[in-house]
Structure formats: C-alpha cells, structure tokens
Here is the input.
Amino acid sequence: MYVYKSLFNVGVLIIKFSGNYLSDDARQSLLDIARLMNPDEIYAINTVILDLKDVTSMTLANTDKARMAYWQREIFSVIKHPKKDVAAHLAAVKIFHVLPENNVVKDMFFKRVTKLSPEDRITEIRDDNFHNLVDVLEQLDLLDHMPLPAEGWKEGKLRGIK
Here is the structure.
C-alpha cells in the first residue's frame, strides 16, 4: 500500500509505502500517479521521495532489464508531451529514498537497487539515502514544509502493469 502527496509549488512528489513491497511497487506507483496527473503537474515534478521506512517485506521480483524496459515504454506513453522532451525530463528527476527500518528489508532494498546498472535506468537514483523524511526535506532545503499536514495525502492502489 502507498499514500502520496504532491508539492507542485516546489516540484516534489512524496510516496510513502507500508507493509509488503511485493514487486516493482515504486515504478508502478509512479506510473499510476502519473496517469492521474495532467501534463503540467507531471512536468512540475523534479524530485521524487520514496519513503520505504514502514515497509515490512520486500522481494527481488521484477528487477530485471526486461521489466525496466517495459516500464519505460509505459511511462513514456503516459507522460508524452508535444513540446517537451520526455527522456530529458525523466533523466532530470532526482529520486531520494527513505530507507526501510527493518534491516532484512533494507538489505533486500540495496539488492534491488544494485541489480540494475545506472545505464539501464532513465532516472537518477541518488546514493545518499536517508533514515526519515525530515532528513530528505532538510537536504532539499524544504523544512518549511514540515510537518506535512495530514490532509492532502491520497491513497494509491497498485494496479499492476498490464
């Protein structure tokens, strides 16, 4: 399960996961959220924070090159824009992670991240991982957005890539 919040005025999308991280939940949630946004909202996002702190289990499912290539085709079709370069926008998006608290899950997360080489990715995965959302927002000089209000979080449902 995940919830997300968009801070369009500062170009940030925060996705908080909890419970079981079953497959390629981060990529799938990005795709599902992008399908709900209009083009201006999509292109306003330049930073994505994936908060995995409350994830209780994780696997290596769907971490291969073929799955990444399929996801890339899907995301390109969702965020196409007649006047903007989709590949350039995605390459410029920075992705930050809040690490899982559970050490076994954290180890699996690092295995997932390192399974694909940087050349196989279209987005930049940052090496500086964090232990909580406040630290990420501090790094981005966005502490004035804390605490994040309880309202405005939207619940996402992973639908899966068809």
